[in-house]
Design goal:
mainly alpha, 5 helices, 93 residues
């Protein structure tokens, strides 16, 4: 039996709970609002990694930001623009 997804845990570590942003969109046990929250947190986390990399700190390159923006566009087409930029404000839980 699969363990039920804990929203708060997924919010703290989206990359640890989902294979990719599309998996968040497809998660059957999260509301649309929760999915958007998880994706916004993941977007923030990836943005922070990009900033750290540019500042000379080691970190993996990320192509996830485009995937996250695409997933957010599916869930929240009229929502906040997710144009790529750094130093985003962390999402409210």
């Amino acid at each position: 039996m699969a363990k039920e997804l804990d929203y708060n845990e997924a919010l703290r570590d989206p990359a640890g709970h989902f294979a990719d942003p599309a998996a968040v969109v497809d998660a059957p046990n999260l509301t649309a609002e929760q999915k958007i929250g998880v994706l916004r947190q993941w977007e923030y986390d990836e943005s922070e990694i990009a900033v750290a990399s540019e500042e000379g700190m080691p970190g993996p390159e990320s192509a996830l930001l485009q995937q996250i923006a695409a997933a957010l566009a599916v869930l929240d087409p009229g929502g906040e623009s997710t144009a790529p930029h750094k130093q985003r404000v962390p999402p409210a839980p």
